[in-house]
Amino acid sequence: MVRRSLAGCFAGLLFAKSIVSASGLRFPPGKLRHYCPITAGPSPQVCISFPVPPTKLEARSPHLAHVDGQGLQEVFDALAVMQDNYYDAVNGTWPTSIDWTGAVVETILSGTLSTLTRSLSSKHAAGDAQMKQGENLISSLYAQVVHSFFGQNAVAIKYQAYDDILWVVLGWIEAIKFVRLLAQLDYPGTGHSCKYMARELSQALPSTPWHGFNWFCTFAERAREFWDLATHGWDTLLCGGGMIWNPRLVPYKNAITNELWIAASVAMYEHFPNDTFRETWVASKGFPTTNPVYLAAAVEGYKWLKDVNMTNQRGLYVDGYHIDGNKPNNVKCDVRDEMVYTYNQGVILTGQRGLWDVTGSPWYLEEGGSLIQSVIKATGWDAFRNAPVDDAHAPPPGQLLPPWHGLGRGGILEELCDASGTCSQDSQTFKGIFFHHLTAFCAPVEAVAHGPHFSAEEHAQVQAAHVKTCREYLGWVRHNARAALGTRDQRGRFGMWWGANVFSRLAVSKFTDGIDHVAPNSTDYRNEGTPHDAVWGGSGKWEPGPYKMRLTCQDESTQPARSHRVPDEANRSPEKRDDDSNKSPEKRDDDSNKSPEKRDDDPNNRGRGRTVETQAGGLALLRAYWELSQERW
């Protein structure tokens, strides 16, 4: 059956969150069947309840979880700086971003709107005046999200790599989540439709959906269109499945594209479960025709990712697999690239959380929790002591910095390009991606619709375990937040290397940063581009940064010259403004906790410096800290 283009908009809105029975799905092998799902069938298998971890960190850290209103202020300050300094209100873009990083910025902005909505809704009892002020603030920021829909270079992205395409899907799903949340909290009882209005005024006043729903179907259709485009990357001829990264290069199946596929597919199922597809097409993709397509795509994608062995000895996701072309008729993924990036540890968390939400299988939460613990350990953080393993000011003999642990040092998350100031625009986005998806994974486990086989006891057990597990990340997240706040300049812009001030503002190079940049089978193509060799292919080279193919809707040569106009300072391209007129007097007078605007000894002035990507990263980190510290836990 052919999917109707707009019908699913309304069908998805009527979907009440419920749990899909696990019996009809093919799950990855391993521990999954040992834990009791919260929807055990009439004849449940032998299983054990999901374990609640010991509360060792709460006992050892008396000041662990207290955060006052200043935490939310720091989140909003990071958001305001991002929009004031980097957002172009004329074209609805972040002009210094590139296509895919702009999609990530929109995702983080939409996620932050959800955080602000929850936080401000809880304070509405203060009075009608503050309610109106909060509504005006949220609506103004949401208008910028809507404007960015039209500023997005959608036509060009369709011809880019499959990971670029899937960032778009996640971005507009995040906007949809915000719209639903605000309507639920602030407009209960109103309609959830982008195209409905009662004819009677007395009925329209209490029932008309929040105005944000006017764009719901617009966002939904772009998400659907780009998910459909991404399906061309699912390939069963090579490696028995999995997503290809870039159709214009030698086949490479990397972690990020497959994690995006899983996260995007399960999110599409959560929001549009009634979308339907032709059975012949479903079968051609190798998905079970008896299951909802989005969910089947997510489950099959997760199964493939686990089976292909994409994690190293530290428990971290490496970058991906090539197919050895020296073997005749070889179709196996057998040449693994060992490069490790932070974002490869993040996106899968949203996929795992989504799969838990729709299947009720706690194994997905356990897998995600294990990955987060591996990441934390790989930054040099002692989870038992809730402190860094190494002394930040006592590096090993002959070293300038504390030891590198795989994803950081001194307990601070770090890309391997951070300390040397050599990060590309791509890499500047990665840490923000990780913390955005950590926040999604650690969202409180909500009550679900009670089916005939729903186990309240098992569900309560999972809730308790999830709360305590995510609580234990808070000390590490706070440590990173404090470090990142120390990199802000006088305009409030975050630096890329969060450890710069912690490690005495040392300006190291690739030769002195303590990292092995020539480790075997590790290609830093996200910073240096793909090499011309037999593994990556010699016919074409991919480089990070702006996509070469740029499409435009107009011929600028035919537009009238505008040199006769005096520039409007208020609407100038924001990143070119050097004054601090957009700052409050208090912020201009008190910058004691921020670095000077320009200092020769500031390592974060090197390379690309402070950008919209580094600002979005700081925002995502502070949002994660705020969300993990809330009382609703």
From TrEMBL:
<feature type="signal peptide">
    <location>
        <begin position="1"/>
        <end position="22"/>
    </location>
</feature>
<dbReference type="InterPro" id="IPR008928">
    <property type="entry name" value="6-hairpin_glycosidase_sf"/>
</dbReference>
<dbReference type="GO" id="GO:0005975">
    <property type="term" value="P:carbohydrate metabolic process"/>
</dbReference>
<dbReference type="InterPro" id="IPR005198">
    <property type="entry name" value="Glyco_hydro_76"/>
</dbReference>
<keyword id="KW-0378">Hydrolase</keyword>
<protein>
    <submittedName>
        <fullName>Glycoside hydrolase, family 76</fullName>
    </submittedName>
</protein>
<keyword id="KW-0732">Signal</keyword>
<dbReference type="GO" id="GO:0016787">
    <property type="term" value="F:hydrolase activity"/>
</dbReference>
<feature type="region of interest" description="Disordered">
    <location>
        <begin position="554"/>
        <end position="619"/>
    </location>
</feature>
<feature type="compositionally biased region" description="Basic and acidic residues">
    <location>
        <begin position="565"/>
        <end position="605"/>
    </location>
</feature>
<feature type="region of interest" description="Disordered">
    <location>
        <begin position="518"/>
        <end position="541"/>
    </location>
</feature>
<dbReference type="InterPro" id="IPR053169">
    <property type="entry name" value="MUG_Protein"/>
</dbReference>
<dbReference type="Pfam" id="PF03663">
    <property type="entry name" value="Glyco_hydro_76"/>
</dbReference>
